[in-house]
Structure of 3-phosphoshikimate 1-carboxyvinyltransferase:
Amino acid sequence: MHKIKHSVHDSYTIRRLLEKMPPHMASSFTEEQLIELNKAMGGRSWGKHKLDVRGTINVWRTSYYFVFLAGRNVRDLSRLEQQISRFTLALLSTLFLLFSLVLGLLIIYLVKSALGINLFEGFSLGIWSWFKENIF
C-alpha cells in the first residue's frame, strides 16, 4: 500500500492563510514554519467536503446538533485502520454477494414457478402463491 505524502501547502487552513497575504510575504515562510502554523491553527481541513450536512434537532427544551461529513480520505491510515478497512470491505463484499445470490435464486424460482415447472411433485415453498396473491 502506498503512503501518500502531502505538503503542508495542501492544507486548507494554510492555503487560506497564504491567500490573504501579499505573495512576497506568503512565499517567505519555510516548510517548518508552515507546519507549526498549521498545528497552532488546529491543523484540520474541515473547509470542503463532498457531502457536508449540518443541522439541529429540538427535543422538548433541549437542542441537539448533528454533523455528517463525507469525502475522499487523503490521510495516512494506521495499521489498525487499514485492518478495519480491509475487514469492512470484505464484509460488505460478502453481504453484497450473498444478497445477489439470494435475489438471483428467488428470480430463477419465480420464473420456474411461472412456467409451471415442478422439481418435486407435491412440494412447494409457497413463494409463488404469495407472489401471485400480493403482487399480481
Observations:
- The CA atoms of residues 110 and 127 lie 8 Å apart.
- The longest strand covers residues 51-59.
- Residues 79-114 form the longest helix (36 residues).
- The beta strands are 51-59, 62-70.
